[in-house]
Design brief:
The chain contains six helices and eight strands; from the N terminus they run H-H-H-E-E-H-H-H-E-E-E-E-E-E. With 213 residues, the chain is α+β, with helices and mostly antiparallel strands. The strands form two sheets. It has a six-stranded antiparallel beta sheet. A two-stranded parallel sheet has the order 1-2.
Length: 213
């Protein structure tokens, strides 16, 4: 991130996060929701919400932290791979902290459950769709969620990311994720062992996952 982009990112962060509301701010969520009401467009909007985070410099900090419920978040300048998803979904009005608790897939700890890869995997499998794990780039749509096993991971052996709507040379979708160096959009869809492929695009106004392809 160049100096100019970093300064702009910090200015954006200060504007949006100074109140402590983070990506859960009601007005951005309303704007994003109005971009389209179709299920497939939800995936594209999710990518948009994740990509916005690439402008915000964050420090990788997996430490346990007490946060409010609902709509809780760690400080805007902290984040791990799961926080990319939590903040992106929240931008679209979906609070994974709440949904995970309601689904009963974690331990019941609202401070951390929704920030754990294995818990999110269980949630997406239960409330969304579990899709085939293949090596065909065409099987991965914008807004899909992909989880990984990273045996050489410096911070964690598990990882999770959002599939982008942008393609690398050869037609492989990029992914938006935080693997310890801030939120980035990279050509790493097939770089690690994929352990899960999910689609959770809540139907607008229904609060249930779409079954549409």
């Amino acid at each position: 991130m160049g100096p100019l982009k970093q300064c702009f990112a910090i200015a954006l962060a200060a504007a949006f996060f100074a109140s402590g509301s983070g990506l859960s701010a009601k007005e951005p969520a309303k704007v994003a929701a109005e971009r389209s009401s179709s299920n497939e467009a939800f995936g594209v909007n999710l990518v948009w919400a994740a990509r916005w985070q690439t402008w915000i410099p964050v420090i990788y900090n997996p430490s346990y932290a007490e946060i409010p419920y609902p709509n809780g978040d760690v400080a805007w300048y902290y984040g791990v791979c799961t926080d990319v998803l939590v903040r992106a979904y929240r931008w679209l009005g979906v609070d994974l902290q709440v949904e995970v608790k309601k689904a009963g897939v974690g331990t019941g700890d609202t401070n951390i459950d929704h920030r754990r890869v294995d818990v999110l995997r269980a949630f997406f499998a239960r409330k969304g769709r579990s899709l085939p794990i293949t090596d065909d780039p065409a099987d991965y749509k914008a807004g899909d969620v992909v989880s990984y096993y990273v045996p050489t991971g410096r911070f964690s052996k598990t990882h999770i990311a959002i599939v982008s709507d942008r393609l690398a040379t050869g037609g492989v979708p990029l992914i938006i994720h935080n693997r310890g160096f801030g939120v980035q959009e990279e050509n790493r869809l097939f770089s690690e062992k994929i352990t899960g492929h999910y689609r959770y695009w809540p139907v607008r106004g229904a609060g249930q996952a779409s079954a549409d392809d």
